[in-house]
Structure prediction request, 1126 residues.
Amino acid sequence: MIHPATAIHPATADFGPAPQLAFDGLLVGSFYAMLAVSFGIIFSTTRTFHFAHALTFTVGAYAGVVAAEAGLPFWSAVLLGALAAAFFGVASDLLVYRPLRRRQAKQLNIFLASLGFLIAGEAVVQYVFGPNSRPLPSVPVTGVQFGSLATSSLQILIAVVSWLFVLLVAAFLRWSKYGLAIRGVESNAVLADAFGVSRTLIFVLVFFIGSFLAGAGGVLFAARDTATPGMGLEPLLAAFIAVFIGGIGSIAGAAVGGLVLGFAESLGAIVLPGYLTNIVAFVILFLVLVVRPRGLLAPRTT
Amino acid sequence: MAFYVDIVNSALIVAVLGFSLNFLIGYTGLISLAQGAMYGVGAYATAIVATRAGLDLPLTVVLSVAVTAVGYTLIAWPALRVTGEYLILLTLAVQFVLVGVYTSWTSVTGGSGGIAGIPRPTWLTGSEFPSPTDLLPFVLVIFFIGLGLSLWIGHSPFGRTLRAVRENESAAVSIGKNVTYYKVMVFLLAGVLAGLAGAAYAHYLAFVSPVSFSLDQSIFLIAVIVLGGAGNIFGTVLGSFILVGFPQLLLLLELDNQVAGLAQRFAYGLLLVLFMIYRPQGLVPEYLHIPLRRVAPARRRRDVVAGTRRSRNPGPPTGDGDGDHPVVVATELCKSFGGVRPADGLSLSLPRGKITALVGPNGAGKTTVFNLLTGVTSLDAGRVELHGRDVTDLAAWQRTGLGLARTFQDVRIFGGIRVIDNVTTAIPDQPGDRVSSLFGRPWATWRTSVDTTEKALSYLDFVGLADRAGALASTLAFAEQKLLGLARLMATEADVLLLDEPASGVDRQWVDKILELVRELASDGRTVCIVEHNLEIVRALASHAYFMDAGKIVADGTPDELMADPHLASIYFGRSGPPTEDTHAGD
Amino acid sequence: MPAIDPILDIAGLHTGYGSREAVFDVSLSVGEGEVVTLVGHNGAGKTTTLKAAMGLLAVWAGEIRFLDRRITNSSSAANVRRGLCMLLEDDFVFRDLTVAENLQLAAFTTASDRAAEIRRDVFELLPVLADRRGQRAGTMSGGERRMLSVGMALMSEARMLLLDEPSLGLAPVLVEQVMGLIEQLVAERGLSVLMVEQNVDQALRIADRAYVLRAGRIVVEEDASALRQRSQWWDLF
Prediction:
């Protein structure tokens, strides 16, 4: 299911000049930014290393594929995939993580359970849908040209939708009552509790939001590539890394981390042999952890 | 037949690989998601030197072990800086990078096609194309080397210290353990075992390719450890046989190959989740219920108290044995965190055989003084002397080694290990507590273990916990944990004891017992300093007290003298003047 | 015992952390509009008692009643709705949020139109908060943060405040200010207060009654003014 050696973004046959690569980096980085926000909101609020977020992504993608195969239009498929993923994410919080938290499980054990959940879930997905890739039918794609920069309408669409979701989440956190409650729990969970903000409810909420985004991302990914049972891990690894690069607890940090990774992967191809581009992310992570362990845009300074 | 023997062989190799990971995850609590890739380092090392340079057993094994050990130790360097999620990501990074190398560096690794034609161990079988049965002796030899090594390490003082580090790093430092050393060493040993398994795999299969060393493999190995029981060597053997054998048995059900593979993945994924929720200790718990080795009746209590105390640094002739000369002298200690100055030019000295108290209002910096004296927190300026020797530049674990040790307000016992091991691990200079003596002086290591157990039991006897020696420390009541903290402190054989709230958080009947023990420790010639908020206890114990406020010593004297000082009362209670002068009382 | 009907009544409380019992058989009560203080050495169980009353810590044994209803082990959210509010000792504001956001979040259980009304009221009472509404709470001084926390309590429509060390880390002049504010709230709005305070002198100034805790048990219950008249307090600690 896992093919570490394949590049995280679909390989472009021949590398164009630097501006083109930077443009590609921007597009793929936008997608990473959304995924990073989707994981970041869950992780910074609940401190759960939700590795199975990759499974949520996959579940969303297949739900979208099924919807599209049933003849629903593209946007309905995206929405349906996102909703399916959102409920799936909430279910994983309630069924897997809550029992662990109630038993005061160690962080390591929570992570291992998440890992197990991912493996078991991928096996189920593969059993139900088969090992072969499933494309999302009838996605309208046309080539797009901006001067010397070439891409497809779908790529542009994915980037736009990604930023739309990032901004929506940011606005929700900034201005809504429950967004404020999420930030309150993140800032000081005990105090939030003392003012009657239920942690359980907030956790369900962030799992819903994060998983919704991941599911939408899954459908978009399937539209650009195809859906496969193991599709989730690599994009989500980029998201995990982006969150740690950007700084836990910062939406802007996660988004910037995603962009940095997109650019680095794309531009890394200029100087690095092809098989090494997929480790650029890890090298950046490593450097950031050594130089600035709390991330580039960590919100708290003390 | 060959089918079953092949399963056994595979399980035995996986077990050795599991031992390696168990030392990291189970013993030391360090996660590695790079185990599959490190296995590959060992396997490729053998494959390359065997096919290119024509080397054969046992040289290939030695080389694999060496290369993998070095490789894993290199991971230790960044791993020392990070914990938790960061370590997960870091080892994940190593996993991906290495598999990238295996797949892409075609000229050396053969790329995704791998390396074939690795010689089988023909010297054992004589056959050119040996069957699994022919190779069983070879695999068994490797397995028993791995098992013997693991049992020796796992049940040694070194292994015990690894568990202590896992349970609480700061407490491990407080009993004189160099945590960095243990972390580096455990990565090295993990590398040795992974290299052994890798070499065995290459010779057994005669073929290596990147698929066998993927992230899947790493996750599979974690499942082996978790299912079998983290921290137990035999649990790993059991876990290997179950997880290797089970899917093979599925094949017997004549399931479709692919469905069987999925069923296997589903099953172990689900098992991982269920075990983490319902049985995080795995099938075989870390400690099987084995009665402690019976030892000779504990020495008499007084002998224990008197007999094991020693100044571990005689220092200059005038510095020791002389009743008037203070054992600890702290001069002009300064420390600031941001804008706060918990120590601001603070000086104090602790005389031998006396109980000195640090008192003062909440937030005056009393615990910080302990942290500065023990070296847990670095000084901005100032100097700490122990037995006349300047220890300012020594690390905390080194100061413990010189006889300066502490307890914690929140006890910080090693909850997940047995009561007796909490104490045994604190006994200094045990052969086998370091890798050099573990392998350089095996006989001394073996022989001393009875002695140290006996010693530890007598400390437990002193605090009244000898009958709980075999229990997990986390099952003790809080007051008992405090007593265990005292026993552990005594086991360090330090002669300067810093006690952070020795009697807080326990009910009356325990307080008297603890006070009596503390008095006994001091009357025996140890130097004791306490931080305590319950002034009744301060009065009952201390002959001398320093009054601290805002990082400074503002007064010192007997507790009664201090409490007679109206200025100190106004600091402590906020009373600004005589009570009668007030005009706006609350009612 | 208070002269008036108790608003909060704790009987035979046992509680603690993990396996560690920190409060043994504590009984106390606070009357409507009364200020009661809990004093005693660090670790005597004062904060633990407040947390158990608020529903932030499980009660092992005993009963807690608020406004004549049994609230033993009910959630903090439910207790906030009933009018109980606790101001924590060290992390009593949301440092990453602005002043306005802190106030808004404190009104989480309050109806939104009410909240706007109370907010005007709070800004009137504590003009410093109005001036700094856009500032991140973590960047304010200790005294300002304390004022904010009192404002937050008002936002939750509290009828009773559980105050944990309100003067901790404040300069003497600020301590007077905070205490003055508490007195004002009690006098003008009829709030009841149960206060843990290390600054015994200040606490006794504004309190009606006091309980002294030592090692998890109540050792003295006395009129605040009587306790204040004692020549020294060392033997209570």
